Amino acid sequence: MNVDIGSRLRHVRLMHNLSQRELAKRAGVTNSTISLIESNASNPSVGALKRILDGIPIGLAEFFSFEPEKPRKAFYAADELVEIGKGPISYRQIGDNLFGRSLQILKECYQPGADTGKVPLVHEGEEGGIVLSGRLEVTVDDERRILGPGDAYYFESRRPHRFRCVGPVPCEVISACTPPTF
């Protein structure tokens, strides 16, 4: 039996409205541990998975017994996009259930000065995006660029990266990443 533990964990975490950071804190593991498991870059031991599931809380039997339906919906109205961000950065996701999906698409909006943080993001996969409006500073490794409308980025997500809105107006971006990481 081949079980996609990463997608299953992401689905259960989102069902309980937990961020990766919050689940990691509850389980006493690092945020990157949750990210690596959800992207199937790391396969946890049974003991480690149980500790993580205790942070939700859900038992191992329930975790392996439920079978969420794979999304079949193809079209989404603007008001059906699911907000998964908070504060000065909005991430509106296409679809609320990404179980079994290998691509995550977001409409992002960064308020002036909004930043993904001083510590660069690092996770498995690839991501790309196109700036629709405003100006976005994108840092990948030691390379930094300010992108404007029509400019784009695409890189391997294991390279340290961060995003920051520069200028006096919000910045809107359409992005995609694989596998889903939020």
Automatic annotation (TrEMBL):
InterPro entries, A to Z: Cro/C1-type_HTH (IPR001387), Cupin_2 (IPR013096), Lambda_DNA-bd_dom_sf (IPR010982), RmlC-like_jellyroll (IPR014710), RmlC_Cupin_sf (IPR011051), TransReg_Diox_bact_type (IPR050807)
One GO cellular component term: cytosol
CDD domains: cupin_XRE_C, HTH_XRE
Presence of the UniProt keyword DNA-binding in the record: yes
SUPFAM superfamilies: lambda repressor-like DNA-binding domains, RmlC-like cupins
Entries under SMART domains matching the protein: HTH_XRE
Name by which UniProt lists this protein: XRE family transcriptional regulator
Organism: Sinorhizobium americanum
